[in-house]
Design a protein that fits this description.
Blueprint (H helix, E strand, L loop, with lengths): L10 H7 L5 E4 L7 H7 L2 E2 L3 E3 L14 E10 L3 E6 L6 E5 L2 E2 L6 E10 L4 E9 L5 E10 L6 E10 L4 E7 L6 E2 L2 E2 L1 E9 L2 E8 L5 E10 L7 E5 L4 E9 L4 E12 L6 H10 L4 H19 L1 E4 L2 H17 L25 H14 L1 H13 L1 H10 L22 E3 L5 E3 L2 H4 L2 H17 L2 H22 L1 E3 L4 E3 L17 H24 L1 H11 L3 H13 L35 H5 L1 H5 L9 H7 L6 H11 L12 H11 L3 H12 L16 H15 L2 E4 L2 E4 L9 E8 L2 E7 L6 E2 L9 E5 L2 E5 L4
Antiparallel strand pairs: 1-8, 2-3, 3-4, 4-5, 6-7, 6-12, 8-9, 9-10, 10-11, 11-20, 12-19, 13-14, 15-16, 16-17, 17-20, 18-19, 21-28, 22-23, 24-25, 26-27, 27-30, 28-29, 31-32
Length: 765
């Protein structure tokens, strides 16, 4: 972990700043950073993601291509997103020497991820073991215009070599997922410059078809052979090479699964036969990215580090956003790594969805519709636990049934009980929160009619069955839960959970009042389906009025859960310096007995329900809980939220430190776990910290309003929001006090005062 003073000042970050504000650049290859950089240079297209491994491979690399929704059974964790056949292999051989980053001599090196174009490239000047010098330029992309198309181009320029160069292109047909096999090859072969393979997963039976062709640019008659080796077929071509001349080969790949079509291998071959050349595919891909960025980019002037890191985080979310599928969601490591098995958590609804709801609402709709499709699993989970309604899984996959492992082996082989799947129930309110936020932002009444209302109402039914009446206090309790702060499990009356349930029931009742009037026929169906009796609705009202929360009426300080204030208080500074979490240092049991937070809990509540709490309440709870939170090695979900609340409290320096912890978590590997994959929730939090924190955006009945609190170095902050089918452009500077959004174009700048507050509105549309 980098300390606060070194955040953003590492050699790697300085390399980044040598580039323009759209390129992540690596100018020296460090084998010890191999897996970290594989994560950093991940490319995705909403359908699949491929880690930034080298086309020719590297010893102990962690190459992976993950196709969203392709799960297979696994021990302990029930199911996992599986490593799919690797489409990358492209090997260049010069006079018998196979090009590799660990052979010969690397004279020059640069790897570049162009965020604007969604294009990964690598330039290497290589001296082979036999002494021949060549320049190699690789570039590749996962097609955004056509998500079933992948492409690689390799340009080879001889510096001093004359002779034959051989290029081989194939597949890694049977990869494992961290050592676990998941694929059976059904058929593979090659003919007429094309190779293919047909596979299926061992347990879930998902079929996959992949096909590839090799093209020599400028020489359509170049001989290309199919070699059927012992593993899988390979396309091979041999080219004459002369000094100062360049030869170019293109590998075009198509891939389908049985999730999209009945015969994936037929679809892959058919699509491949119809594909144009690399440059045509690239042009369509770039045009698709240009359209995405038009609505989603954030412009920051005065701070190039912030500009590039923000764009990088947004890129990784936009690249994994499912535009064409509403039966999948976004895993916490996107499609860039195996951690968390590709399961779906609250990360998506609370951290990622706000960004997509305001910039790509059609994608947000898909992600929430995924939750609708998992309602049957949520109902099964509630029933199995002895409750009613729908209880969303803490970890979800295809069906919505709970896939959190109950027991995991510890470091010494002992079994450790994992309670999250049983009692981290706040996920149910989190999903409802995202549903209502989407509806309020988009005015998508049809989606609420067909999907959203059923989610909010049936999860409210669950809460009615989950609470318990406390006769002594005359209040409702929610016992034996885990809040967002997972350092403390099996607690009673977690404030975040209880107050989110209160909000949930209040929102369900308000929604039902509207729904009955707007859609009487559909509401009559839901009355029957969910047993929405008058008595039940009255009970909801009673629960939300009497749910227990321990809050000091004088100071506003909220106890995180019953008994938290009686736990041992510690000074976190006493444990510095360190390179692991406090729970990692002290152990699970010891940490649970102390006031040490993994991530914001009460403060997270105050953020999500910020319109309900005044400044003094926030300040009181910030003063208490901020200093007790493990900011550096706790949860990556925390820093962005702390950045926003620090802005609300007019602490811009502290806000910026928290912002950097989130923005650089993958680029600088600040938590030493970026090798496992992109921190997707943190990336979504980065957008929120910029827009809600530094931009100061608040939602009103008239639309979004910005009250910016920019870091001192930022001279300009510009972004676009979608609100109720209109685009609102915000262009903020240090002098801006308040901007009221308006969808009308060409409105002149004006100033006015409302209740003594200076308002400035720039041209917005």
């Amino acid at each position: 972990m980098l300390d606060d003073k070194s955040l953003g000042n590492s050699i790697y970050t300085q390399q980044l700043l040598d580039a323009n504000d759209w390129n992540v650049i690596e100018t020296k290859f460090h084998p010890k950073q191999l897996h970290h950089k594989e994560t950093v240079f991940t490319t995705s297209n909403g359908y699949l993601g491929t880690r930034g491994s080298f086309e020719e491979g590297y010893p102990q690399d962690n190459a992976a291509t993950l196709i969203n929704g392709v799960y297979d059974d696994v021990n302990i964790a029930y199911t996992e997103l599986v490593n799919c056949p690797n489409w990358l292999p492209l090997v260049v051989t010069v006079a018998g020497d196979r090009f590799s980053m660990d052979s010969g001599e690397i004279l020059k090196y640069e790897r570049r991820l162009d965020l604007r174009l969604g294009l990964l490239s690598r330039d290497v000047r290589w001296r082979s073991p036999k002494g021949h010098t060549l320049d190699l330029h690789f570039e590749r992309f996962a097609g955004l215009a056509d998500q079933h198309v992948l492409a690689i181009r390799c340009q080879i320029t001889s510096i001093d070599f004359e002779g034959e160069i051989t290029v081989e292109a194939g597949f890694d047909a049977e990869p494992t997922t961290e050592g676990v096999p998941h694929w059976q090859i059904l058929h593979q072969g090659g003919l007429d410059q094309i190779i293919w393979q047909q596979s299926k997963t061992l347990h879930s039976g998902i079929g996959l078809g992949m096909a590839a062709k090799l093209v020599v640019d400028g020489d359509d008659n170049a001989p290309i052979f199919v070699e059927n080796g012992s593993d899988s077929p390979v396309l091979t071509t041999t080219l004459e090479c002369f000094p100062q001349q360049t030869v170019t080969v293109e590998k075009i790949v198509t891939v389908f699964t049985s999730r999209e079509c009945n015969l994936p291998i037929a679809s892959a071959l058919y699509r491949l036969a119809d594909e144009p050349r690399y440059t045509t595919l690239l042009a369509a891909h770039i045009a698709a990215w240009e359209q995405i960025w038009e609505d989603s980019d954030i412009i920051i002037e005065g701070d190039r580090q912030a500009q590039l890191t923000v764009r990088y985080n947004l890129f990784q979310l936009l690249a994994v956003a499912p535009h064409n599928d509403n039966r999948i969601s976004i895993p916490p490591k996107t499609l860039s790594g195996f951690a968390y098995r590709g399961h779906i958590f609250w990360d998506t609804e609370i951290f990622i969805l706000p960004f997509l709801t305001f910039t790509q609402p059609a994608v947000a709709r898909n992600l929430l519709t995924y939750r609708y499709h998992t309602l049957p699993g949520a109902r099964r989970k509630a029933q199995e636990a002895g409750y009613q309604g729908a209880m969303f899984a803490w970890e979800s996959a295809t069906t919505g049934d709970e896939v959190t492992p109950r027991w995991v082996p510890g470091a010494n082989g002992e079994l450790i009980r994992i309670w999250c799947g049983d009692i981290e129930v706040h996920i149910t309110a989190d999903v409802a929160y995202a549903v209502l936020h989407y509806w309020q932002t988009t005015d998508d009444d049809e989606w609420m009619r067909d999907y959203g209302a059923e989610i909010i109402l049936d999860t409210a039914v669950f809460w009615e069955s989950r609470v318990q009446w406390n006769e002594e206090r005359h209040s409702y309790d929610i016992l034996d839960v885990i809040g967002p702060d997972e350092n403390h499990d099996r607690v009673d009356n977690n404030a975040f959970t209880n107050l989110m349930v209160q909000w949930h029931l209040q929102s369900a009742l308000a929604l039902w009042d509207w729904f009955k009037q707007a859609y009487p026929e559909k509401s009559a169906q839901l009355v029957q389906q969910l047993n929405l009796t008058t008595e039940r609705l009255h009970h909801w009202a009673e629960i939300q009025e009497r749910i227990f929360v321990n809050q000091n009426t004088a100071t506003g300080l909220i106890e995180q859960f019953e008994g938290f204030f009686q736990l041992e208080d510690v000074n976190l500074a006493d444990y510095e310096p360190r390179t692991k979490s406090l729970q990692g240092l002290l152990g699970i049991e010891a940490t649970s007995q102390k006031q040490i937070l993994k991530q914001p809990d009460v403060l997270m509540l105050l953020y999500l329900l910020r319109q309900r709490y005044d400044h003094n309440t926030l300040a009181s709870n910030w003063e208490y809980y901020n200093q007790r939170t493990d900011h550096t090695y706790g949860s990556s979900l925390g820093p962005a939220i702390h950045a926003i609340l620090a802005c609300d409290l007019n602490q811009p320096s502290e806000a910026y430190t928290h912002f950097l912890r989130a923005a650089l978590v993958d680029l600088e590997d600040v938590r030493r776990n970026a090798a496992e994959g992109i921190h997707a929730a943190s990336a979504g939090g980065v957008w929120q910290s910029v827009v809600y924190g530094f931009g100061g955006v608040r939602m009103t009945q008239f639309g979004p309003v910005a009250c910016p609190n920019l870091p001192p170095s930022w001279t300009r902050l510009k972004f676009r929001l979608q609100w109720r089918n209109e685009s609102y452009d915000f262009d903020l500077c240090q002098e801006t006090t308040m901007v009221v959004g308006t969808p009308e174009a060409a409105v002149p700048a004006w100033e006015n005062t409302i209740n003594g507050v200076l308002i400035e509105a720039s041209e917005l549309h």
